[in-house]
Specification:
Layout (H helix, E strand, L loop, with lengths): L16 E3 L5 H7 L4 H7 L1 E5 L1 H9 L4 E7 L6 H12 L3 E5 L1 H8 L7 E6 L15 E6 L4 H14 L3 E5 L8 H7 L8 E4 L1 H10 L3 E5 L5 E2 L10 E5 L8 H4 L4 E4 L11 H12 L11
Parallel strand pairs: 1-4, 3-4, 6-7, 6-11, 7-8, 9-11, 9-12, 10-12
Antiparallel strand pairs: 2-5, 3-5
Helix pairs in contact: 6-7, 6-10
Length: 286
């Protein structure tokens, strides 16, 4: 956290709207963000927890609405976030436990919820350079897998995610939870398979795809020659031939047990840390 959220006491907050009814139109709109249609129409999404809200603000995300429970009132960090929300033209709601529980929809609801504008990275703006690694996911369907992959991409220093084809929403509540805040740090783009392949032809990358028919051990690939895009297949059906056929290398992760495949998030993590192994140097001073 930067000094804006670490030093000093509570700041004077401007207008705070107190809400106690689930029938309040603003509360209804926020609750509707659990549905993709509402997120798409409003261009917003929900993030739960004070840490995630602070991370988002520090990384320059636009907050539309801050919701906090009465139990959080007076806490210095909450007051500071509320002050920054008002300064940015956002709305601040103080709600009771019934409302925050209905919004967060979990047994132990977070005391703070932020509503943010979505951000998508245009595919045309992605021009990988030396030392960069991107992850392309073909029709990823499970929000937990996508969230874990975004978190793993953040941890490994990957440059971003490209969602290829019909994929789960990176801004769903389940995905955002699984990212543990990394959704605010990792750029996400989306493309049709045709757009992705056209993009691939115009950028100087090495496209490494995982495939059950892959003939190359993933540990033997040279990940240093060009910027790398790791192409991971759909959880159930794997990569279609149209995508696999355009890969510069078809890689396979050797397995010894009875399981015939790895979970998508696990397989992506294995590939990603190997692709970036030469770039991940442990700081011995820490």
């Amino acid at each position: 956290m930067n000094s804006d959220f670490r030093e000093g006491g509570p700041r004077r907050v401007g207008h705070v709207k107190e809400v106690t009814s689930l029938a309040n139109p603003i509360v209804k709109d926020i609750k509707a963000l659990s549905q993709k249609k509402a997120r798409d129409e409003s261009g917003t999404f929900m993030a739960e927890g004070l840490k995630l809200v602070i991370d988002a603000l520090e990384l320059g995300w636009t907050i539309r609405t801050l919701v906090y429970s009465k139990a959080a009132k007076g806490k210095p960090l909450v007051e500071q976030v509320a002050a920054k929300t008002v300064a940015n033209g956002g709305l601040v709601l103080e709600v009771n436990e019934k409302v925050i529980s209905a919004i967060a929809r979990r047994d132990n609801p977070q005391m703070v919820v932020g509503i943010f504008d979505q951000k998508w990275k245009p595919l045309r703006d992605i021009r990988p350079t030396d030392g960069e690694t991107w992850i392309a996911l073909d029709r990823v369907r499970d929000p937990g897998n996508l969230g874990t992959i975004i978190r793993t991409a953040d941890a490994a220093g990957a440059s971003g995610i490209i969602l290829v084809g019909e994929s789960t929403d990176p801004f769903s509540l389940e995905t955002v939870r699984a990212t543990m805040g990394s959704v605010f740090a990792v750029p996400v783009a989306k493309a049709t398979p045709e757009e992705f392949l056209a993009w691939k032809k115009h950028v100087g990358i090495s496209l490494v795809a995982t495939h059950l028919a892959g003939a190359v051990d993933y540990r033997t690939i040279d990940y240093k020659k060009k910027p790398v895009v790791l192409l991971m297949g759909n959880e159930q059906s794997g990569l279609p031939d149209t995508l696999a056929g355009e890969a510069d290398a078809l890689a396979r992760i050797p397995q010894a047990g009875r399981a015939d495949s790895l979970n998508l998030a696990v397989a992506t993590a294995v590939m990603l840390f190997e692709a970036r192994r030469h770039l991940l140097i442990l700081d011995k001073a820490k």
